[in-house]
Amino acid sequence: MPPGAGQLALPIYASHDAIIKAVRHHQIVVVEAPTGSGKTTQLPQMLLDAGLAGDRMIGVTQPRRVAAVTVARRVAEERDCRVGDEVGYAIRFDEHASSKTRIKYMTDGTLLRESLEDTRLSAYSVIILDEAHERSLNTDLLFGILKRLTTHKHRRKSLKLLITSATLEAAKVSAYFSGCPIQSISGRQYDVSVSHSLENHDNDYYQAAIDTAMQVHLHEAPGDILMFLTGQGEITKAVRQLNEAVSSLPADCECDALLVMPLYAAMPPDMQARIFAPCPEGCRRLIVATNVAETSITVSGIVYVIDPGRVKQKSYSPQTGLDALTVVPISRVQAVQRAGRAGRTQPGKCFRLYTQQYFDRDMPNITVPEIQRTSLLSACLYLKSLSNDIDVISFDYLDPPQPEALEDALRQLFILDAIDGQGEVTPLGSQMARLPLDPCLARMLIAAANLGCLPEALIVAAMLSADSIFAENRGPEQIARMDAQQLVQAGGITAAGQQLVKKLMEDGPGDHILLLRLYRAWQETGCNGNWCQAAGLNTRGMRFARDVEGQLEAAIENSNSTFFERALGDGSIGRAKKRRKTSHSSEIELRQAILIGFASRLAHRMPTHNGYKTLGERSVLAQLHPVTANIAADEDGLLPEWVVYHELIATSKNLLRKVCPVDATWVSFITPKIANADVNRLRGGHREQPSQGGRDIETVSVSAAEQAAAAVVPR
Ligand code: ADP
Ligand code: MG
């Protein structure tokens, strides 16, 4: 179906012939165009309609799940097809694509996983690495992987690669890809007048944003407002506060009605769709968004932008393993990008809640790429599994990661048995890489298959993969402690539901086992939604977990992997599930599997109080997170000596989140391996040495730890 008049008016069509010509004549092309030009929605269609897809697919990667889905829906609508037919998408745990699909939107992580199964990516004729300016970890890895695939000696000559970006340092990327051509498309941008505030709002940027929004609404001409905040919690609060402010305006106020809408990645799809619905007459929209509206999602009709100059950003310390999700200043490139959102359809205004001087002198110039501020555990495992001759240290990165981060990843991979003493990937490691889970959860599943508790471990992995199991992000302890009045206010949680949560964690099982028990209890109700509400659980989260459980199960059944032989050997996992209910002893086995999976995240209690010390290159002191499910203490009130944790978060204190108590006897099988993780051996020189000897020893130690752990449990 040819593009409609609305689409043809988008700036990218002005360069249609030049782009098609460049792609026909060159294997790699960089396309640089401002946001809203049509890169994401139109470029793939242009290539398809020009016959450049041949009989394969055009794959388009997005760093964000939400963008992959919304864009696929939009393009399917433009082409008048159902999602999953000509236009489809694939994100982790959710795929709508078929043999009919010609344009497939996907997350960069999904393409990375596909490349493990098919290193030549033979399903695709064209790959578009979209939103490359975001410099997400996975997009950066794909840069290197696709460079290899298009240039090394067994390269795929017919594969076309496009890198598209709004603000990328195009020259740098072109240089990285051996001087490939750059197609620059100028957008149709109206003037945006930028005003800076007279003071910097450090801690009060939130209130300053709210106040500015009301000022704009009351005093500026018609036009929608886009306001940036940093996260879901802040946005929900702002929406409530703004609605209250509007309803308390005097009745004779002459301004339009104000429709306040949130926009963030974890928002349910039906609410996201509202963002694109036309605004009712006589109404102004105020969209309160995270960074997702900076470049990935373009909302039309925006005339005013409010930019507090903040973004929530992940950072990771490879030395201590501490993760932090902190609000940090945006970069100058981002500030310009945000302002640009105001001038897409007419001249606009941008209100920056920081001073001109701060913008000119102190604001960071560019955003640090994710590869330089995140854990590289799964990245290293992918690279190593992709090909034995990839050396993660000397790999051709666009911007190399910190050496400490690579060393930390190698150390953890060794502890998880994913690489051997010479740093080469083990068969177990390549199986881990193929599961759509982080390496720790993948390792846990493999251990569980050996220990005979795979159905339980699948549930735990699925529950941990759902964003929010507890409604309103409460923790089980918070639910248990609510008094009668709070229960009424919570509107949904009933006294009986609260009792159930309390009872399931009475014996202090920690988070993982509690998640398992909650899921089992829900299953017994026939997966009843009211039951979830009564117990303070998020029905959507629980259903998501159920889907994930099914998908993981299918992935394992289809893998035909020897690592799951025991679990698959006596019939399908499904049948195994029917045969058994979770018993006390299977919970013990599950804890062992969790320990083996999270062996790189062990914490030891201090001798005389309930603080924990993590095991690692450099240990840190940490407390249990306040939302941790009850963990049994002894008569002296001391918590278990050993726990493993899912996350170690740096806030004002260091906190362990999602914690499972483990037995000291089992830990003693693991600690020698931790002591043995010699980074110098793992990182270098493995090429020169015959690798066989080392590998044997390590592979034996894997099963030895598992068997030994199994032996100490009374069955
Ligand atoms: P780019 O990738 O260059 O930023 P896009 O292809 O995302 O540009 O957007 C091009 C145009 O399509 C924009 O005007 C945008 O508003 C519109 N658009 C994109 N997604 C949707 C959607 N889901 N619904 C309605 N319009 C959309
Ligand atoms: Mg785009």
TrEMBL record:
<dbReference type="Pfam" id="PF04408">
    <property type="entry name" value="WHD_HA2"/>
</dbReference>
<keyword id="KW-0378">Hydrolase</keyword>
<dbReference type="GO" id="GO:0016787">
    <property type="term" value="F:hydrolase activity"/>
</dbReference>
<dbReference type="InterPro" id="IPR011545">
    <property type="entry name" value="DEAD/DEAH_box_helicase_dom"/>
</dbReference>
<dbReference type="Pfam" id="PF07717">
    <property type="entry name" value="OB_NTP_bind"/>
</dbReference>
<dbReference type="Pfam" id="PF00271">
    <property type="entry name" value="Helicase_C"/>
</dbReference>
<keyword id="KW-0547">Nucleotide-binding</keyword>
<dbReference type="InterPro" id="IPR001650">
    <property type="entry name" value="Helicase_C-like"/>
</dbReference>
<dbReference type="InterPro" id="IPR048333">
    <property type="entry name" value="HA2_WH"/>
</dbReference>
<feature type="domain" description="Helicase C-terminal">
    <location>
        <begin position="209"/>
        <end position="387"/>
    </location>
</feature>
<dbReference type="GO" id="GO:0006397">
    <property type="term" value="P:mRNA processing"/>
</dbReference>
<dbReference type="InterPro" id="IPR002464">
    <property type="entry name" value="DNA/RNA_helicase_DEAH_CS"/>
</dbReference>
<feature type="domain" description="Helicase ATP-binding">
    <location>
        <begin position="20"/>
        <end position="186"/>
    </location>
</feature>
<dbReference type="InterPro" id="IPR011709">
    <property type="entry name" value="DEAD-box_helicase_OB_fold"/>
</dbReference>
<dbReference type="InterPro" id="IPR007502">
    <property type="entry name" value="Helicase-assoc_dom"/>
</dbReference>
<dbReference type="GO" id="GO:0005524">
    <property type="term" value="F:ATP binding"/>
</dbReference>
<keyword id="KW-0347">Helicase</keyword>
<dbReference type="Pfam" id="PF00270">
    <property type="entry name" value="DEAD"/>
</dbReference>
<keyword id="KW-0507">mRNA processing</keyword>
<keyword id="KW-0067">ATP-binding</keyword>
<dbReference type="GO" id="GO:0003723">
    <property type="term" value="F:RNA binding"/>
</dbReference>
<protein>
    <recommendedName>
        <fullName>RNA helicase</fullName>
        <ecNumber>3.6.4.13</ecNumber>
    </recommendedName>
</protein>
<dbReference type="Pfam" id="PF21010">
    <property type="entry name" value="HA2_C"/>
</dbReference>
<dbReference type="InterPro" id="IPR027417">
    <property type="entry name" value="P-loop_NTPase"/>
</dbReference>
<dbReference type="GO" id="GO:0003724">
    <property type="term" value="F:RNA helicase activity"/>
</dbReference>
<dbReference type="InterPro" id="IPR014001">
    <property type="entry name" value="Helicase_ATP-bd"/>
</dbReference>
